[in-house]
Amino acid sequence: MKTFCENSIRMPSGATLDHFLKAVSNETTLNREFIEICTPNSHALKGANIGDIDNKLCFGCLNCIDVEEINYLTVQGSPSQFKTNISLQNTCNKLFQGKYTRFGPAADKLANHSMQKETEISNPLGTLIIWNLSRDPTRTFFCSSPSGELSINTSNHLDSREGHLDITICSPQDKIVCVLEGKASVAAMLRDISRDQWDRYKSQLEKESKENNYTLIFSYLVGGNEIGLYPENSDAPHSTRRLELYKYIEEKNLRFISIEALRSLRAYQLSISKEWNWETWFPKLFADNRFIGLLAGGIVTKENDVYSLRKAPWCK
Fold first, then answer.
1. How far, in Å, CA of 226 to CA of 21, rounded?
2. Tens of pLDDT, residue by residue, the chain (316 residues)
3. Which residues does 207 contact at the CB level (< 8 Å), separation at least 6?
4. Which of 74, 83, 179, 253 has its CA 20 to 30 A from that of 214?
């Protein structure tokens, strides 16, 4: 069981993506922070205080699990080393098939937890899952809210505040950096439309990544229940926010990943494909102009002005 991580990087105040990418080129000089893996225990990447992970608070994010450590889930959705009626592999066989699904039992536990606070819950949670999905987590580094965000100076008349990058995670050996703008839920994403963060951030991030010879992955990371992220013609239950959201996606050409999808990928990696890593698959997805979003049920694409849910390319 994983209890801590030392790859959270503390950058000086005001440091930008450019500063971060230059810093990680020399791993021996990085200012690393020793943090806990279990977010219910540590609540927002606090310093590590190694002890037993509290099973009563577990909502099944799977961040603490090592490969080949579990094969089952409890009815509460927690990982289990002991045999139960819920097989992790059978659960994962339903994921990413181009059909609406939810991960395992008690799926609302993760959704309800991640939608509470963006900076202190959903962003750190998503950061740690992606770190676990790395080809080599020991050489994958990140900065994340609530206290480690990088800066991006893109203030304008719509929003006078200096921009902050919620999540920045990079693989120096693969020369790939993933920057995610976190939103606690679909509703929170829609509330922030006026801030125009996508257009304000994208060109500057592309510039700084290119100057450092990095491939950039830029996306929204959305917590809470992902039902509203499914396209209208999918088999997902009705959502009152879906049409409004997809109008916004259409206007800004947005891309998104759900927290639910990340947790599902972690489960998929643990039980079906131990070689799965974000450094291989995220660039392939984001290089495809048809790709819009990643959900537990599959990938959202846009072809001939139609949004559809499709089977993920890593599924047989």
1. 32
2. 777 888 999 999 999 999 999 999 988 889 998 887 877 666 556 665 655 666 677 888 998 887 667 888 988 888 888 889 999 999 999 999 999 999 988 889 899 989 988 988 899 999 999 999 999 999 999 999 887 899 997 765 455 667 899 999 999 999 999 999 999 999 999 998 877 788 889 999 999 999 999 999 999 999 999 999 999 999 999 999 999 999 999 999 999 999 999 999 999 999 999 999 999 999 999 999 999 999 999 999 999 999 999 999 999 7
3. none
4. 253
Q: What angle do CA 4, 281, 96 make, to 5 degrees?
A: 90
Q: CB–CB of 260/151 below 8 Å?
A: no
> Residue type for 34, please?
F
Contact criterion met (CB below 8 Å) for 150 and 164: yes
Nearest to 313 by CA among 271, 248, 268: 268
The DSSP symbol for 188 reads H
Tell me how far apart the alpha carbons of residues 286 and 177 are, in angstroms, rounded to a whole number.
Answer: 12
Rounded Cα gap, residues 170 and 176, in angstroms:
6
Distance between CA 183 and CA 132 in Å, rounded? Answer: 21
Structural tokens at position 315: 């599924």
